[in-house]
Design a protein that fits this description.
Length: 151
């Protein structure tokens, strides 16, 4: 039996609510993606990034997705095996690798984009644009208040 929150006394356990919400949304996304071909949320993130910046350096993609280089390498290895992306040596620095979407990756990007509209509608249902603006501003402020690499 679950305890229902009192609408007159909002739950202010922000860390708990943020973590619990993240886990639930992540599991929901992963289940939906698995049902539609097996893309993970992380792979979708790479597809979205490369949809805007095809040919970006691996490090740029890792920064944009807030992933450690080692996690990004494994992710790109899996996406390369799945024929979603290709690695190409940077013409100015042969040690650096650039990522490019394959035709299969572009198709997966378009499918993921279509699903994102539905997800955003589901996430914002029941809230006014002003309320969503406050939530977005608060979530965005976390990037500034807790910069990457700072402990």
């Amino acid at each position: 039996m679950s305890v229902q929150p009192d609408p007159q006394k909002p739950d202010r356990r922000l860390i708990f609510l943020l973590n619990a919400g993240h886990r639930r949304v992540q599991r929901w996304i992963e289940a939906k993606m698995a049902a539609k071909g097996g893309l993970t949320a992380a792979q979708s993130g790479v597809l979205f990034f490369l949809g805007e910046r095809d040919g970006a350096l691996i490090g740029e993609a890792a920064d944009a997705l807030d992933l450690a280089p080692s996690a990004m390498t494994g992710l790109i290895d899996r996406m390369t095996r799945a024929e979603l992306v290709e690695r190409h040596a940077d013409p100015k620095d042969g040690r650096a690798m650039r990522l490019r979407l394959t035709d299969k990756g572009r198709a997966a990007h378009e499918a993921a984009k279509a699903g994102l509209d539905g997800l955003n509608a589901h996430l914002t249902e029941g809230f006014t644009p002003e309320e969503i603006g406050v939530v977005a501003r608060w979530l965005g402020s976390l990037q500034t208040k807790f910069p990457k690499g700072e402990c």
